[in-house]
Amino acid sequence: MANNLFHNKQDYKKYVQEKSPKHNYFKNCIWAFMVGGTICTIGQFVHNQIEKFLNLDHLNATNATILVMIFLGALFTGLGVYDQIGKRAGAGSIVPITGFANSIVAPAMEFKREGYVFGVAAKMFVLAGPVLVYGITSSVIVGIIYYFIQK
């Protein structure tokens, strides 16, 4: 295609550079930091409130906080809010818990028109599946190595 529209590679390269979006890396880093920090602050607030009002110890409050943050990430993805946050914040929206919930719910929402089995269930782990497989496999390998080292 480049040969039909452009006389040489330099003309094509110049055209691509003109059409490519320009990025302000400093501004993007600030947005990522602010949004990621805000999500983490919300998580810490939720944790503190769970400890205080439900009178749970630290570990159980942490587990409950994880549950709440996954729910909020999935809810905001379903409502289309998380995608808007991600467009502005970029990597800042991929805070581990809420970003993981988003990576599971987003493909499921995209394919829901294909039905619950062939759409939602089949596509739910398109993004998160490889992460889960690698995480589980590597933890099993590390566990086996640890077992033999301890013997």
From TrEMBL:
Q: Membrane-crossing residues?
A: 29-47, 59-82, 89-109, 124-149
Q: Which Pfam families match?
A: SpoVAC_SpoVAEB
Sorted keywords for this record are: Membrane, Transmembrane, Transmembrane helix
Origin superkingdom: Bacteria
Q: What is this protein called?
A: Stage V sporulation protein AC
Lineage of producing organism: Bacteria, Bacillati, Bacillota, Clostridia, Eubacteriales
